[in-house]
Amino acid sequence: QVQLVESGGGLVQAGGSLRLSCAASGRTFSNRAMGWFRQAPGKEREFVAAISWRLGRTYYADYVKGRFTVSRDNAKNTVYLQMNSLKPEDTAVYYCSAKQTSLTSTTYYPSDRVYDYWGQGTQVTVST
Question: What own/partner pairs with CB < 8 Å and gap ≥ 24 does 77-80 have?
Fold first, then answer.
């Protein structure tokens, strides 16, 4: 089992920034591609960003590209989501997720269907 705990959410004004963290514990953090997703009230969960295990290749949804940055620190078993130029439409609960991959995998995964583990989520609210 892998436990994922998100933190860093909160209330911020439009144009502001937040940095979300996702700390993993339990079984090894290695060989795991990571993803960030979000869900706003009354909406389906949607993809935000993903990062591969090897090489840290990244992929973003169009609506966050250029504003959000995903990164990982494998030594700390942590993945981050730096969110800049936040907009009210970014308001949602943000979830991190982990998918086991091979040791040599450089693949990222934008589909929520493939992930094995999920955190409990952290609320991000962007005011006007």
Answer: 77/23, 77/24, 77/25, 77/29, 78/21, 78/22, 78/23, 78/24, 79/21, 79/22, 79/24, 79/34, 79/36, 79/51, 80/19, 80/20, 80/21, 80/22
